[in-house]
Write a structure and sequence with these properties.
With 368 residues, this protein is of the alpha/beta class. It has 11 helices and 16 strands. A 7-stranded mixed beta sheet has the order 6-5-4-7-10-15-16, sandwiched between helices. It has a 4-stranded mixed beta sheet with strand order 11-8-9-14, covered by helices on one side.
């Protein structure tokens, strides 16, 4: 077994600022953007310089700290009021990615629960942002290995299909869906990855293939409307995709076109896996109909570079995500293992019970 050589980290704390890989310039330019202010971080998230639900969460956590650093007051109450405004700015950037809201909530909770001076709160926020960053990287490695354990056992070397980019670029590193691909490649179980181009922003063509080329992973690019044909030809053994938000019943929002791939996989009796950290599960939403779907600028579909593709007078509809029903998903691969969609609620109940048990132990513990 050889360790992964992946060194792609899209969000890095460096020289007292945040360095982001500018994903809008890949694959032709591998450049970084330095972020010093919370407003700049919000802009980077909105314009997809940084993208992918887990990576957005990490970036937003640092964005909260950058915003805290800008608040010039020693009054705790006034500081927290300003910090709430920073949080609201970052929340407004991408409505579908639940990791964004999860990370912001964790940061704000840390601020309110920290006793002491404003400077001590700022230090706690920095430490919390760094913890979120490190934890996501560890989570992705666990997801990759847990995914490897549930992939089909035959043939020995598999051909997998993915949609969009759920790789190192979409996380703190290693990836969720591509984490599974990397683990399979590391263990000699991967023959080839097929990557949908992922219209209209082409994250599959630009980003997923770029990541694979960096590590020598065999990758074949196909257009989105070729997936069903490839399945019919017996070229695909399993599908692995990421997620931006998962409802309590297992319905999953991912990049537009994922639902079509899931339907095709079901029709060809091919397992369809969703790889995502537990922080992507939104237990407050009963099902996928409640997931907000971001609609993006129509320029993404009527223009390529400087070339206009359509005649004047055309209307446009550009949802960035669609929702795959739980019944089309074989399992959701998390850092705690692969979970059938219908058992997510059981997991939530277990987590609640563990939390209550810990609280009870804390309350009843005798004084030292």
């Amino acid at each position: 077994m050889t360790p992964s050589t992946n060194q792609v980290y899209p969000v890095i704390w460096h020289n007292n600022s945040v360095s982001l890989i500018d994903q809008t310039r890949l694959p032709n330019e591998y450049t970084f953007v330095e972020i010093h202010r919370s407003e700049d971080m919000a802009r980077a998230i909105k314009t997809m310089i940084v993208r992918g639900a887990p990576a957005i969460g990490v970036a937003a956590a640092y964005g909260i700290y950058l915003g805290a650093r800008e608040i010039a007051t020693s009054d705790r109450h006034e500081f927290l009021q300003h910090l709430d405004k920073v949080a609201q700015l970052l929340r407004s950037t991408r409505p579908t990615a639940v990791n964004l809201f999860w990370a912001i909530s964790r940061m704000i909770k840390a601020a309110y629960e920290t006793l002491g001076t404003v400077e001590e709160i700022k230090q706690t926020l920095f430490q919390t942002a760094q913890a979120i960053n490190v934890e996501d990287l560890q989570t992705c490695h666990a997801i990759g290995d847990n995914g490897l354990a549930v992939l089909p056992t035959t043939p020995e070397k598999l051909t997998l299909l993915t949609h969009c980019n759920a790789g190192a670029l979409a996380t703190a590193g290693y990836g969720t869906a591509l984490g599974v691909v990397r683990s399979a490649w590391r263990e000699g179980r991967l023959e080839r990855l097929f990557a949908d181009e992922t219209r209209p922003r082409l994250q599959g063509a630009k980003l997923t293939t770029w990541e694979c080329v960096q590590e020598g992973i065999p990758v074949t690019l196909i257009t989105d409307n070729m997936a069903a044909h490839c399945m019919k030809q017996g070229l695909i053994h399993a599908v692995v995709v990421g997620a931006d938000r998962i409802a309590a019943n297992g319905d999953t929002a991912n990049k537009i076109g994922t639902y079509s791939v899931a339907i095709a996989a079901k029709a060809h009796n091919i397992p369809f896996f969703v790889a995502a950290p537990l922080s992507t599960v939104d237990f407050e939403l009963a099902d996928g109909s409640k997931i907000p779907i971001e609609e993006r600028e129509p320029t993404e579909i009527y223009q390529v570079g400087d070339t206009i593709l359509t005649p004047a007078g055309v209307d446009f509809y550009n949802p960035a995500f669609d929702v795959t029903p739980a019944e089309l998903i074989t399992a959701i691969i998390t850092e705690n293992g692969a979970i059938p969609p219908g058992e997510l609620v059981k997991l939530q109940l277990k987590q609640v019970a563990q939390h209550q048990s810990c609280m009870k132990m804390h309350i009843t513990r005798p004084p030292l």
